[in-house]
Write a structure and sequence with these properties.
The structure holds 2 protein chains of 2 kinds.
Chain A: H1 3-13, H2 19-43, E1 52-53, H3 60-68, H4 73-109, H5 114-123, H6 131-158, E2 166-169, E3 178-181, H7 185-248
Antiparallel strand pairs in A: 1-3, 2-3
Helix pairs in contact in A: 1-2, 1-4, 2-4, 2-7, 4-5, 4-6, 6-7
Chain B: H1 17-25, H2 33-57, E1 66-67, H3 74-82, H4 87-99, H5 101-123, H6 128-136, H7 144-170, E2 179-182, E3 191-194, H8 198-240, H9 242-253
Antiparallel strand pairs in B: 1-3, 2-3
Helix pairs in contact in B: 1-2, 2-4, 2-8, 4-7, 5-6, 5-7, 7-8, 8-9
The chains are: A mainly alpha, B mainly alpha.
């Protein structure tokens, strides 16, 4: 049970996404999850053990570390990635539910080519209209909410994305102000900026996908209303034509 | 140089969270919609968070626990006094015990399939295609399976609530303190002991408790849904039968 399980679930969602959604998924997987797993975790690996303060007071280092790092960047990003990935699974659940219903209908129909139909259903890509559109839209909103929420939390907890080399700490039981030195601050700053930029890119992609979905829905409803108008127009012309024919047709 | 035979490949199934996940997700097929949501919440917000985040936050809980004393053994004794069982171990136990009632349902389904296969073979229609169909058949949650499912739901809620209570008894309050005062033997007097990463631990404790609460609510909702469905099915069947119609007539005459 690890990032690989989440990775395999997410790649299954890829099929039912828009093109922007697929780009978002790739950015999420390669620039965030993989970077976190393969690089960032090692950078933050010794964050506590190498956090040293210029004091011999027992407990001072522990308390100062807790004061300046209430929650580690790595844990925050792990939670962010889990929360941000989950709405996409809503769409996958809806598609699975929908396909299950259709599968039942196929099995009851008693057609000859059931296996072929079932296989076609398995590989079918549902169009993003109707209920699926709303669920997709809702999942996009949730993604944006979680991304924005976690970025705000990171900024609120740490004040800035820059990690300094040393911090001044005078929390009890430290006797007076102690200089505490953070391990690998430049590397951590680089990775923090990288993750923040990837997060922002994901937010932009989600916003673009949102506008794309809304635009597509508007165009589709506009086309539908045009077609309805044309049909009504044709129907009214047809009705006008019929009474004329009734008058001219011979009575038996 | 002595020739050593090549090492045999490790064919034994590994006991880890991945194999646990594989076993439990197999139960997914026989669950209701709410049951599947519960399973997803369990895997994503509890198991995954535990494995990728919480375990590393608690990783140095013993080595990072420092007491203001040079007395040998005081550190160890104080840690043991304040943390009789680590949060991580409690959560791991909770996850395992809460997920296992779902296996009751899987066992019941396997038993029914076995009976069906036997009946087919006795009746002489045991073709491979029919046996394959039985293997993939999805059973409706009615009759004895309904009762098994309700019992498994009851145990799930019971274990969740029991662990929440145990948690409360061992660690009253959700907050992890930075400083604890310890005077257990062999500490010479009351010494200050400092806990590693208390704020991070508090955040994760609150998170895991909240998700536990959500899981309890989902299980209760699923129970109510199943009872409601059974009642509506009962009423529908009662209306069809003559005795049921008589009963309904008497009921509505009051």
């Amino acid at each position: 049970m690890s990032w690989l399980t989440l990775y395999s679930q997410l790649t299954g969602v890829n099929k039912h996404s828009t093109s922007l959604g697929k780009v978002w998924l790739s950015v999420l997987l390669f620039f965030r999850i993989m970077i976190l797993m393969l690089a960032a975790e090692k950078v933050w690996g010794d964050e506590k053990s190498e956090f040293s303060c210029n004091t011999l007071s027992p407990g001072c280092e522990s308390v100062c570390y807790d004061h300046y790092f209430p929650i580690s960047h790595i844990r925050l990003w792990c939670l962010q990635l889990i929360f941000v990935s989950t709405p996409a699974l809503l769409v996958a659940m809806y598609v699975a539910y929908n396909k299950h219903g259709t599968k039942r209908v196929i099995l009851r129909s008693g057609n000859e080519n059931i296996e072929g139909d079932l296989k076609a259903l398995k590989n079918k890509r549902l169009p993003i209209t109707g209920q699926l559109w709303w669920i997709y839209f809702f999942s996009l909103l949730l993604r944006l909410l979680f991304e924005g929420g976690f970025m705000y939390a990171l900024y609120t907890i740490y004040g800035s994305f820059y990690i300094s080399r040393a911090v001044l700490c005078n929390v009890k039981p430290c006797e007076n102000q102690a200089n505490c030195y953070i391990s690998r601050p430049t590397e951590k700053t680089i990775f923090t900026i990288f993750m923040v930029v990837s997060s922002s890119l994901c937010i932009l992609l989600n916003l673009a996908e949102l506008f794309y979905l809304i635009a597509k829905a508007l165009i589709r409803s506009f086309q539908l209303s045009n077609r309805r108008q044309d049909c009504n127009h044709l129907a009214s012309k047809f009705e006008e034509a019929i009474p004329m024919e009734k008058q001219t047709s011979p009575k038996y | 140089m002595p020739l050593t035979p090549p090492a045999e490949p490790d064919l034994e199934p590994k006991m880890n969270w991945a194999s646990f996940y594989a076993v439990i997700s197999g139960v997914n097929r026989h669950s209701t919609g709410i049951g599947r949501i519960w399973l997803s919440v369990l895997f994503l917000f509890r198991l995954l968070v535990l494995v990728v985040a919480a375990e590393s936050a608690w990783g140095d809980e013993k080595s990072g626990f420092t007491c203001n004393t040079e007395q040998p053994g005081c550190n160890s004794v104080c840690y043991d006094h304040f943390f009789p069982i680590s949060h991580i171990r409690l959560w791991a136990l909770q996850l395992i015990l809460v997920s296992t009632p779902a296996l009751l349902v899987a066992m019941h389904v396997a038993h029914r399939r076995h009976i069906d296969k036997k009946m087919l073979k006795i009746s002489g229609r045991g073709s491979p295609k029919d046996l394959e169909q039985i293997k993939n058949q999805k059973f409706k949650i009615t009759g004895a399976l309904w009762w098994t499912y309700m019992i498994s739901l009851f145990f799930r809620v019971f274990f969740e609530a029991a662990f929440m209570y145990i948690f409360y008894m061992i660690y009253p309050g959700y907050k992890m303190f930075r400083l604890v005062k310890c005077d257990s033997y062999p500490c010479p007097n009351t010494v200050d002991c400092f806990v590693s990463r208390p704020t991070e631990k508090t955040i994760f404790t609150v998170f895991m408790l909240a998700v536990s609460g959500v899981c309890i609510l989902l299980n209760i909702a699923e129970g109510i849904f199943l009872v409601g469905r059974a009642c509506s099915r009962h009423f529908r069947d009662a209306q069809d039968s003559p005795i049921g119609a008589l009963f309904m007539q008497k009921l509505f005459s009051y």
